[in-house]
Amino acid sequence: xxxxxxxxxxxxxxKVFDKEEIxxxxxxxxxxxxxxxxxxxxxxxxxxxxxDVKFVSLVNSGSSANLVALYSLTSSVFGDRALxxxxxxxxxxxxxxxxxxxxxxxxxxPIFIDAExxxxxxxxxxxxxxxxxxxxxxxxxxxxxxxxxxxxIVDLCKKYNLxxxxxxxDALGSKYEGKMLGTFGDIATYSFYPAHxxxxxxxxxxxxxxxxxxxxxxxFRDWGRDCWCDTGKDDTCRKRFQWKMGDLPFGxxxxxxxxxxxxxxxxxxxxxxxxxxxLKKLPGFIKKxxxxxxxxxxxxxxxxQYFQLMEENSMNDISYFGFPLIVKAKAPFTRNELTExxxxxxxxxxxxxxxxxxRHPAYIGIKAKIKVIGDHKNADLIMNNALWLGVYSGIxxxxxxxxxxxxxxxxxxxxx
Length: 416
Known about the structure:
Elements: H1 19-31, H2 38-51, E1 55-59, H3 62-72, E2 88-92, H4 101-106, E3 109-113, E4 135-141, H5 150-160, E5 163-167, E6 175-176, E7 179-180, E8 187-191, E9 204-208, H6 211-221, H7 269-301, E10 307-308, E11 316-317, E12 323-327, H8 335-344, H9 361-364, E13 371-372, H10 377-385, E14 386-389, H11 397-415
Parallel strand pairs: 2-3, 2-4, 3-13, 4-5, 5-8
Antiparallel strand pairs: 1-9, 6-7, 6-11, 8-9, 10-12, 12-14
Helix pairs in contact: 1-7, 2-7, 3-6
């Protein structure tokens, strides 16, 4: 689309694709196999190779990935470590709700920790004091692609025998000390919504290196059935009519034996077909996001009296989801004044997701079922003063220069 400054809207995120995605989807339509199929298997294979993990399960969204990831850990195969109602899990108030909601739905108690201002991630220094005998899990996201304190959190999980679910929905391709995010915890989740590094339109993935967890993931994703056959396949176990489980008669069809109270959260092969093409483009997408981020960082560094920028850490190689910044309290303008000006000039902006999740009606309504550690002043500051701008690969040099020009006009006006 031709860019006309001041008339063409610049969204914070969006899909970038070409004929390969379209041709793949057309092939699926023509083949007539529209549920999980050849492209799903190809994407799983390519995604495993990209992340260097053993197991990948595709689902219909990143939110579903979080739901299945948590519920997979309720399986009785995990003995005393199995999650159950009444257990506690550590999370943060600066979060997208679907990182928190699965635990709440199960009847677990979320323990909310405040965030750091220079990373927007959970303040790992406050976690250990919040751990009790009931704590079973840490489930947090790498905010906007920036790694949370993996060294500290992984050590805490080992020390207290806690599960770790890494929400990598914003962080596909980010690395910590040269290793991919999503490979540090027991389970990691990904989203392929159009805002993310690659897209399937909707879609998500759950990855693990643990075969028992993988089996449980597949059970909860696929109706709760005990059978592990791929879609369209039969008798993978070679004893389909030779099982005796529960109170069922011997020989009951294994395809219809249910050992979990599960869901149906699979995706279609249309989605996977688009994802296969997108994954090939991921290195280029990441490179462009990094270039755009660095350009905006250089620009905003000139105005440190007005903005707090994020910490730069040499251990991280970040696949940026967006460019976050915090408007300082002493700035001669508010976050809302800035975002309204940008939007008026056709430049998209976003708040940092929920800001402070504890301020939202849904969580005020379950106040008795949650636990809050500390005062969450940082979460409130993020809620009121923080925003992010787009860096995705659809923002070319002309668009980026226009964004910086409009920002310059705004800052000159406010300085007077």
